[in-house]
Write a structure and sequence with these properties.
Shape: globular
Strand content: 5-15%
Number of strands: 10
Low-confidence stretches: none
Bound molecules: zinc ion
Radius of gyration: 22 Å
Helix content: 55-70%
Mean pLDDT: 96
Structural class: alpha/beta
CATH architecture of the largest domain: Up-down Bundle
CATH class of the largest domain: Mainly Alpha
Length: 454
């Protein structure tokens, strides 16, 4: 097995990538990656590595202060011409058509590379600007708050609807840990939240592999386990803003992006915990509300998921009960639920579920059968992959992280709706798909409701 977890960044970025026993080639479009103290100085080196010489630098007011000012000084000192655009701060910078339009109209076509200085939104926008201007994109990260630094997609909003747009991803990523360590604490918490999610994503990736035969790579999973382990051992350092501890979070987040590129699916970095966040955002965008940072939501989603797995660990699958539930499936009631929860985007979900065939009785029966036959193995996966719940809560508490939806102004009703729709919004098998196929989703929801009440 390829030993990704013990490879250096340069080895992980090997041009041409790796041939793996899992059957898929593993490669990334990232050509230059530095994480560490003072690495902002390597911007000119990164530009040379990409073969570019005139960056279009994009910041917002905060990231200009945090690192943009330094970045342009470094360019100036190195004699590199650049064009700078800083969002004016009159309103929050969103990953939407408005901001992307501004960047397209402000773009200097003499520039041969987009250089984003920032985290989530700036990163998403610059990857899109790289795509539409047909230039490579480089990123100087300012906060270890999300795992999109090395990923080839942007989480955008278009006409008030969230969507993921695939692009080429950045070719250079620079995370100066001295700068990142000074990011607002809620951004450090968000990065931690997006990383504890990986316990769940790896667990569910393995379960899906067992139940549906979905593609899985142990070498990639192992790289992610090692990254999360380092972060769990660094909680005290994150709290005191130790650049090395913050560096482990940045490293884990960047590796998550690499892992997704390697696997060519989001499985190594995203499971049911991310679905909670996606659904909360979908329903709140429709109401014109913005929620807490992605990673904070995902951290809460992770803690809720650990509660749900407590329920799963106690069940005994029964094929007769599963078959009865699958036979009694009420298509009209299910469609009404999707319309009620998702409003304007319901039709899109209904179409995608129909296309995937995930609700077809024969498919579900097959899954239920596999679950009943392999239940011991599933319990063993859960046992091996999921962390001790108390340890996670303790770490979250230490960092001052919200642990329940109510703390980020998400209602219990929205969370219950999110729970019972998590298996509907994509066809990738997760723990609520398992509960749905076993005819236990309603019972699990009752249990979950009691957890939210407690
Ligand atoms: Zn592999
Ligand atoms: Zn995430």
């Amino acid at each position: 097995m390829l030993d990704f977890k013990n490879m250096s960044f340069d080895e992980l970025l090997k041009p041409g990538g790796y041939t793996c026993t899992c059957g898929r080639p593993h490669k990334t479009g990232v050509k230059f990656l530095k994480i560490g103290r003072g690495v902002i100085q390597t911007i000119p080196e990164a530009l040379s590595a990409l073969g570019v010489s005139h960056p279009f630098v994009v910041c917002d007011q905060n990231t200009y202060r945090a690192a943009g000012e330094r970045a342009v000084q470094i360019l100036q000192d190195a004699g590199v011409p650049y064009t700078l655009y800083v969002f004016d701060g009159a309103r929050p910078v969103l990953p939407s058509e408005r901001e992307l339009g501004i960047l397209a109209m402000r773009f200097d076509y003499n520039c041969d590379v987009v250089l984003g200085v920032g985290s989530g939104v700036i990163n998403d926008l610059c990857k899109m600007l790289g795509l539409i201007s047909n230039r490579p994109c480089a990123i100087v990260g300012t906060a270890p708050s999300m795992d999109g630094y090395a990923s080839n997609s942007s989480a955008m909003e278009l006409e008030g609807v969230k969507l993921t747009i695939y692009n080429h991803g950045p070719e250079a990523v620079i995370c100066d840990t001295e700068i990142m360590a000074q990011a607002p604490m809620r951004m450090l918490r968000a990065g931690f939240g997006d990383m504890i999610a990986k316990y769940i994503s790896i667990c569910e990736w393995r379960i899906a592999n067992l139940v549906t035969g979905e593609y899985y790579c142990e070498a990639i999973a192992d790289m992610m386990r090692a990254a999360v382990k380092k972060i769990m051992a660094s909680v005290d350092g994150i709290l005191t803003r130790d650049p090395d501890a913050v560096g482990y979070v940045a490293e884990g987040l960047v590796l998550s992006g690499l892992a997704m590129a390697y696997a060519n699916v989001s499985r190594p970095a995203s499971g049911i915990e991310h679905r909670f966040s996606h659904i909360w955002e979908m329903i709140n965008i429709a109401r014109g509300r913005t929620l807490e940072l992605h990673g904070i939501q995902v951290g809460i989603g992770t803690m809720l998921t650990l509660e749900l797995y407590d329920y799963i660990k106690k069940i005994t699958p029964d094929f007769a009960r599963a078959k009865a539930a699958i036979t009694a499936f009420d298509q009209a009631a299910w469609e009404a639920k999707i319309h009620r929860v998702f409003g304007p985007v319901a039709d899109e979900i209904l179409t995608s579920v129909q296309k995937s065939g995930q609700n077809e009785a024969d498919v579900r029966l097959l899954h239920a059968e596999r679950l009943c036959q392999h239940w011991d193995e599933i319990l063993a996966i859960i046992q091996a992959e999921l962390p001790d719940k108390a340890t996670i809560y303790e770490a979250a508490k230490k960092l001052g992280m919200p642990v329940r939806p109510s703390e980020i102004e998400v209602s219990k009703e929205d969370t219950m709706d999110a729970l019972v729709c998590t298996h509907d919004i994509r066809d990738r098998y997760i723990c609520t798909s398992l509960l749905f196929d076993l005819g236990l989703l309603d019972d699990a929801a009752n249990y979950f409701k009691r957890v939210l009440d407690s």
